[in-house]
Design a protein that fits this description.
The complex is a heterodimer of chains A (365) and B (296). Chain A is mainly α and 365 residues long. Helices cover 70% and strands 2% of the residues of chain A. In chain A, α4 packs antiparallel against α6. Classes of the chains: A mainly alpha (365), B alpha/beta (296).
């Protein structure tokens, strides 16, 4: 009922959900039930890779919500993703228990190595899954709220805001590189053993993580869809198109901007939390400004302001990246740069825009 | 007319002082007033006072880098009146609108809405919520929204974030939108994107958006710039029909248009009021002819 209202006249959205549903059904069967020597078998490596793409897609949708609909070009959204990832990583570290290299019952290896004798206060509570999940949403959300409030209240927008978000993620990267911060410094958090009592190494856990990512992506998509089709969504788009006008008709523009920015950061945090157990590591390089810029390319390439386009872009670019970094690692950055230029100049509405154009041309003939 | 305004001006001094005190004191009423944005905007009855004045501007001065955009400007607008403000370029017409809507703060002077609301203490959205609507010189509608959505966004309603997230239009609100669509002559294409409307239609849509806010005071900046003769006439008719229910202040260059709608004209020159009165009287004023009309 609600879903059909949210996807009224949104064929791309239906297709997107159908693909996700198909993946949730087919991938587990192909991985767990079909024997390994069959051509239809899907390796666990592939399952994890696809799961990773789903997390990226969720992150892309989060960015599309603020950029495509509210016109806020955040070049630091990777920071919220990484913070969500760190919160999950802290939980996974606490689950290691005494199985670390140094065998300390409570402290993660890197703390033992640094000669710390007890957990810093901000590591407390992370042995509880529910607490960690709360932090996955709360930490990125709070940062986005404070940052957004300061920026939007002072009516910082456009390029200035983009530069500030870039500085934000860079500053966080430098901070997380420091050993004294207590997040594993350069190496970050890794060597995870299990999640909620089941080993991260089993195929079954991998499949559960994959399915969770798919469900989170679908839920994130529908949530964003609810937001953009609500009156709030129309206000936010109005802010994008004519900010001063929106203010004159009585909307507190900065409240709307902070709200949408915070919601987007929370979604990005959840994406990061699903990403970390699948890739098995979280380190400060996730805060690199380059990551956030790449994210912008995904959304631009897929087609901003459509949500499913952002997810599609994330899938496409990362697929190309996986192939290229395997075959010709040195040219990947050039390809990324070229993609960005080509999309900006020739495909202002991205792949989805081209598709719409072709279709409407077809229907005129 | 000069006489009447003058008397009202004198009567105002007392009221003005009283309301100044009101803002300073911290009684619950005054606080309510200052943070009125959080509570309900004042009703028509509260604002419309016995002397029938809705907007008081007194001795407003504003300079940009030594240039006096407004110079001791004093202006009163009555309830339900249709007032045209004319004047050569740089006379301060748009700056005047900026001051009323809170976009710019004057260096000195006072601006009151009704008798108690000090506009100089309010932010732009607060002023909009109080019932002062402004139409810009360049039509600015939300191009990526349909005509209907434009009107919905502009509607007088609770504009807080969480309320907007769950907001559904009520039957009454739909009727109101229908009514305004009718008034601005856009009934035939409620679903059309505002960006694809003609110039004249955009101007009307913008006036419609103002009406959705159910304002007491409408500020309209150059409504017929770039319009065809026919569109211009339709606009004149629309604005005239709005007066009475609303106070309408129109800033316009087009003298033909001003002649067709104006009952009261205020001539601005170098940031202050040069003359005020009926169009024909003002038109004959030798000083006015010299600075403005004489040149055309």
């Amino acid at each position: 009922m609600l879903i059909s209202r949210l996807l009224d006249h949104e064929k791309g959205g239906w297709a997107f959900l159908a693909v996700l549903l198909a993946a949730v059904v087919v991938v587990p069967i192909a991985n767990l039930l079909i024997p390994e020597d069959s051509v239809f078998h899907l390796s666990t490596y592939m399952v994890t890779l696809l799961g990773k793409y789903l997390c990226y897609a969720l992150l892309a949708i989060a960015l599309d919500l603020v950029w495509g609909y509210c016109g806020i070009l955040s070049l630091g959204h990777g920071a919220f993703f990484a913070l969500g990832g760190y919160a999950m990583g802290m939980y996974l570290m606490r689950q290691v228990g005494s199985r670390g290299v140094y065998g300390h019952p409570e402290l993660p290896d890197f703390m033992v190595f640094l000669d710390w004798d007890s957990l810093p206060w901000y590591w407390l509570g992370f042995d509880q899954f529910w607490f960690a999940m709360l932090m996955v949403m709360l930490v990125p959300g709070l940062l986005a709220f404070v940052f957004g409030w300061l920026a939007f209240r002072s009516r910082v927008s456009g390029v200035y805001l983009s530069i500030m978000t870039q500085a934000l993620t860079y500053a966080l990267m430098l901070a997380f590189f420091r050993n004294e911060m207590g997040f594993g410094g350069n190496n970050g958090l890794t060597d995870f053993k299990d999640i909620l009592g089941s080993s991260l190494q089993t195929d079954f856990t991998r499949i559960v993580l994959f399915v969770s990512s798919a469900v989170a992506l679908a839920a994130g998509y529908l949530l964003c869809r609810y937001i953009v089709t609500s009156k709030l969504g129309r206000v936010v788009t109005a802010v994008r198109d004519a900010e001063a006008r929106t203010r004159f008709i009585g909307y507190r523009v900065e409240f709307y901007q902070v709200w949408i920015f915070t919601v987007s950061a929370v979604i990005a945090g959840i994406a990061g939390a699903l990403y970390v157990p699948q890739v098995g590591i979280i380190n400060p390089s996730e805060f690199q400004p380059l990551n956030s810029i790449e994210l912008v390319v995904w959304v631009a390439l897929g087609g901003r302001g459509t949500l499913y386009g952002a997810a599609l872009g994330a899938g496409l670019v990362n697929y190309v990246k996986t192939i290229l970094t395997g075959a010709l690692p040195e040219i990947w950055l050039f390809v990324l740069g070229t993609l960005f230029v080509v999309v900006t100049v020739f495909l202002p509405k991205g792949v989805v825009g081209v598709w719409h154009q072709l279709r409407s041309r077809g229907s005129h003939d | 007319m000069f006489g009447i305004n003058y008397e009202v001006g004198v009567a105002m001094i007392d009221n003005d002082a009283a309301s100044q005190n009101n803002v300073v004191d911290s009684s619950p009423d005054a606080l309510q007033n200052r943070f009125g944005f959080l509570s309900k905007p004042p009703s028509r009855e509260e604002l419309v006072t016995h002397n029938g004045i809705i907007l008081y501007l007194e001795d407003v001065t504003l300079s940009f880098d030594g240039f006096k955009a407004l110079n001791d400007l004093t202006l009163y607008v009555e309830v339900g009146e249709l007032r045209c403000i004319i004047g050569p370029n740089g006379a301060g017409k748009t700056t005047l609108m900026d001051v009323i809507t809170g976009k710019t703060r004057p260096d000195s002077g006072s601006a009151f809405y009704g008798q108690t609301i000090d506009l100089l203490q309010m932010s732009e959205p607060q002023i909009a919520t109080l019932g002062i609507g402004r139409k810009f010189q360049k039509p600015t509608v939300f191009e990526q929204h349909s005509v209907l959505e434009n009107l919905e966004l502009a509607m007088k309603s609770d504009k807080r974030v969480w309320v907007s997230l769950f907001k559904q239009l009520t039957g009454q609100e739909k009727d109101r939108i229908e009514e305004v669509l009718n008034l601005i002559g856009l009934t035939d294409f409620p679903r059309k994107m505002a960006g694809s409307l003609s110039h004249g239609q955009k101007q009307w849509l913008e006036i419609g958006m103002l009406l959705m806010q159910d304002p007491l005071l409408l500020l309209v900046d150059e409504p017929v710039a770039g319009m065809t003769q026919q569109e211009s006439e339709a606009t004149a008719e629309l604005l005239t029909s709005l007066a009475g229910e609303h106070s309408v202040v129109v800033v316009e260059h087009d003298m033909e248009f001003v002649r067709s709608i104006a009952r009261q004209v205020t001539v601005l020159h170098e940031g202050s009021v040069l003359a005020e009165g009926a169009f024909d009287v003002v038109q004959e004023d030798p000083i006015v002819r010299e600075v403005y009309l004489g040149s055309s």
